[in-house]
Write a structure and sequence with these properties.
Elements lengths: L1 H13 L8 H13 L8 H16 L4 H26 L11 E13 L9 E11 L13 E5 L13 E9 L12 H7 L2 E7 L4 E2 L8 H19 L2 H12 L7 H9 L10 H20 L2 H6 L2 H19 L4 H19 L5 H15 L7 H28 L4 H31 L1 E2 L3 H26 L6 H22 L6 E2 L5 H16 L9 H13 L5 E3 L5 E6 L2 E6 L4 H12 L3 E3 L4 E2 L5 E3 L7 E6 L2 E6 L12 H4 L4 E4 L12 E2 L1 H7 L2 E6 L2 E6 H5 L20 H4 L1
Parallel strand pairs: 3-5, 11-12, 16-17, 17-18
Antiparallel strand pairs: 1-2, 1-4, 2-3, 4-5, 4-6, 7-8, 9-10, 9-19, 10-11, 13-14, 14-15, 15-16, 19-20
Length: 723
């Protein structure tokens, strides 16, 4: 044992220059630790860990194990404390009106949406803050501290923008519960995103007189939307929507079929402003400024052209990040760019992996919940894999470059593009599987052409068009940009129609994704041979969706839909207000097409039999020695009592309606049970029938709404606040 500890200490000493890279990893583990309990954990554990870490660092600073244990405990505690603080700073989820209501609110943003029918005009969705409801119950109440996103009527032609106040009659809806335990939690996303819910307008919106407070944020938002509108005049449809995405970060108007093609072909990252786009912008600015200064003899001899160029590039990158909405991947890239520019200006080496660690630390401490989202996971996994990969491949690529002939340069360029796509795509593949339920096997081929077109054609033309807008000469540059966008759309559509371009994958358990990402960190953050040990957890995490046990039956959150796993299909029956969303989510989770559940006869496997014993809308699912009775259709709202002989020998009774007096003595899941407990999953094994509700999975945390999606009632303003 002592020899093993000595060997480990020796390995850590040889890797001492890489040890700081693990600090954000342990901060992330502290954040994840906070989200695991089923009840709200006390903050004293984090405070106690911080207090204990300080003496460990002081007394053990001269020994590696003292420094390491103190830093690990401190990072875990800081991550836990940051997550607790962000959670408790968030305002409570409000109780929204259950019926149509007149409301007024301050416009934060306006998103253009694709047309529901081809050839029809697109819609608009507004994000409103400081919302007030015009009801007798809400009179004198404080405005909402969270935002509402409302889709306007497609025929609403009112002209307005960020900073205006609107009055709308709308039907509102709180964030829904997960469609099954362990599925995507929209309530948690809305909680940390400071959203109260969504809605749709029932009438035309009107401007509120003397309303609207113009701030720097609303001015910037108006500028973004003005640029997007001028782009749409020259490039209508998806061309203009994609151009607006790249230049100002507004992607709502992209047609669903084009967005789908980008997703299937592995080009979705081009529609998410991130490091690629920021690198292109900064590279163009740096190149232009440096060559411009170098072309003037006086400045080339007297000024530090390189330093001036990189500072201008950083300023250009900051403007670009502001103009595109300050999305998380872009912010991460901007923090890294700041560190690189600082290193170049001061004459030091630009350690990219350390810059990535600093960016991760800043984002995790300022907004810890980002670790649960797709942008953070995909962004950091891709960049970490790229940095580590090129650290290893730097020497082989230099040899491939050779004397630098034209053919060698072209070969290196193509090889670099392929390696970039392969490294980033492989590192983010399990993340894509976990969040989107699919694999895109041809992403390398698509990126080989699409990335150079974006970097050398589309983005330069688009940036030039933005610069020419003040003098109204942007049309020709936007036309050139549109040709490039058309080429990328054509490429995405072609690759998306290749055989096996999309492979559906079942739901990935959270621990499987976490295991893969930890293995990726182990592989990328160390520099010696023992880094290869990280491949083992990566493989296990990658394979977990294919060996993860999926439920046999799922009852959706409102009890209206019942889904049964049957072979390579998902049989579904019932009615639900959110049926379209629940069907899509379950189809992705099970990686099976949805087929209507037959109300008469039996399935090919013989496991499911429906319509026997003259019981309409009743099915029996038998697997092994256990049986589940399913009441998948009931027009009497449970008033029609099932005969006792139908319930005999059943291990569980599941009904889309209230069970009432049916099947007494049999464990029951009906509409009332689902209303209290959320969605329920049922597993039928040799040892028995096991059920798991969303309430058992999610617990009683601040972001979990009360049954029926009820929030906290709004409170009236204090007298001093009314003034």
């Amino acid at each position: 044992m002592k020899g093993a500890l000595t060997r480990l200490q020796t390995l850590l000493l040889t890797e001492r220059h890489r040890l700081p890279l693990w600090l954000p990893v342990f901060i992330a583990l502290g954040v994840l630790t906070y989200f695991q309990p089923l009840t709200e954990p006390a903050v004293w554990w984090a405070l106690g860990g911080c207090l204990l870490a300080i003496p460990l660092l002081i007394m053990g600073w001269h020994r590696l194990e003292g420094r390491a244990s103190g830093c690990v405990l401190l990072c875990l505690s800081l991550g836990f404390l940051a997550a607790w603080s962000e959670n408790h700073r968030a305002p409570p989820m409000p109780e929204l009106p259950r019926r149509a209501v007149m409301l007024t609110g301050h416009v934060q943003a306006v998103d253009m949406l694709p047309a529901r029918v081809e050839g029809a005009p697109g819609g608009r969705r507004v994000t409103l803050s400081h919302v007030r409801f015009e009801t007798w119950l809400d009179e004198g109440m404080a405005p909402l501290k969270r935002t509402l996103r409302i889709r306007l009527r497609d025929d609403d032609s009112l002209v307005f923008g960020p900073g205006n106040d609107l009055r709308i009659r709308a039907l509102l809806e709180a964030p829904p519960f997960p469609v099954m335990p362990g599925a995507r939690d929209l309530q948690r996303e809305a909680w940390f995103g400071r959203e109260a819910g969504t809605g749709r307008a029932l009438g035309a919106a009107t401007l509120v007189e003397d309303g609207g407070k113009v701030t720097a944020t609303t001015t910037l938002e108006r500028l973004r939307e003005t640029i997007a509108a001028r782009i749409a005049v020259v490039l209508p449809g998806s061309d203009g929507a994609i151009a607006s995405t790249l230049l100002v970060g507004l992607s709502g108007g992209i047609a669903p079929k084009d967005r789908e093609a980008f997703s299937v072909s592995g080009l979705s990252h081009l529609l998410a402003v991130a490091g690629l786009h920021l690198g292109i912008v900064m590279g163009l600015v740096v190149t232009t400024v440096r060559y411009g200064l170098a072309s003037i003899e006086w400045t080339a001899l007297r000024w530090p052209c390189k330093e001036i160029a990189v500072i201008c590039g950083l300023l250009g990158g900051m403007v670009y990040v502001l103009m595109t909405g300050m999305h998380l991947p872009a912010l991460r890239s901007l923090i890294m760019a700041c560190l690189v520019v600082l290193a170049l200006v001061t004459g030091r080496n630009a350690a990219s992996m350390r810059g990535l660690a600093v960016a991760a630390t800043v984002l995790l401490l300022t907004g810890p919940a980002v670790i649960l989202g797709v942008p953070f996971q995909m962004s950091f996994a891709a960049v970490m894999a790229l940095i580590a990969g090129y650290e290893v491949l730097r020497v082989p690529l230099r040899r491939l470059h050779g004397e630098g002939t034209v053919s060698r340069r072209f070969l290196v360029h193509v090889t670099t593009l392929a390696l970039t796509s392969l490294l980033a795509g492989t590192a983010t593949l399990p993340v894509s599987m976990a969040h989107f339920g699919e694999i895109q096997p041809f992403f390398v081929v698509a990126n080989l052409l699409a990335v150079p077109m974006t970097a050398l054609w589309v983005m330069p033309a688009g940036l030039l068009a933005v610069l020419l807008m003040p003098v109204h000469l942007e049309r020709w540059a936007l036309d050139v940009m549109g040709w490039g966008v058309d080429g990328i759309i054509w490429l995405a559509d072609m690759v998306a129609h290749w055989p096996a371009a999309r492979i559906a994958v079942p739901m990935t358990p959270g621990w499987g994704l976490a295991l893969f990402l930890f293995g990726l960190c182990w592989l990328c953050l160390w520099s010696r041979t023992w880094r290869l040990l990280g491949i083992a957890p990566m493989l296990v995490g990658f394979l977990t969706p294919f060996f993860h046990s999926l439920p046999d039956v799922v009852i959706t959150p409102d009890g209206g839909l019942i889904a049964v796993r049957e072979g390579d299909q998902l049989l579904m029956s019932g009615q639900s207000r959110d049926a379209w969303f629940e069907r899509r989510a379950l189809e992705q989770a099970f990686a099976r097409p949805i087929v209507s559940l037959p109300l008469h006869g039996e399935t090919a496997s013989g496991d499911l039999t429906c319509g026997e014993d003259e019981a309409a809308g009743v099915c029996v699912l038998t697997r092994g020695k256990h049986s589940v009775l399913l009441r998948v259709e009931d027009t009497t709202d449970g008033q029609s009592i099932l005969p006792s002989e139908v319930c005999q020998g059943m291990d569980l009774f599941v009904a889309v309606s209230p069970a009432r007096s049916s099947c007494r003595g049999v464990p029951t899941i009906d509409r009332f049970a689902v209303w209290r407990e959320g969605a329920v999953a049922v597993w039928m094994t040799d040892s028995g029938v096991r059920t798991l509700s969303d309430r058992q999975w999610s617990g009683d945390r601040l972001w979990v709404m009360r049954p029926g999606r009820h929030g906290v009632p709004n409170l009236p303003l204090a007298k001093e606040d009314e003034r």
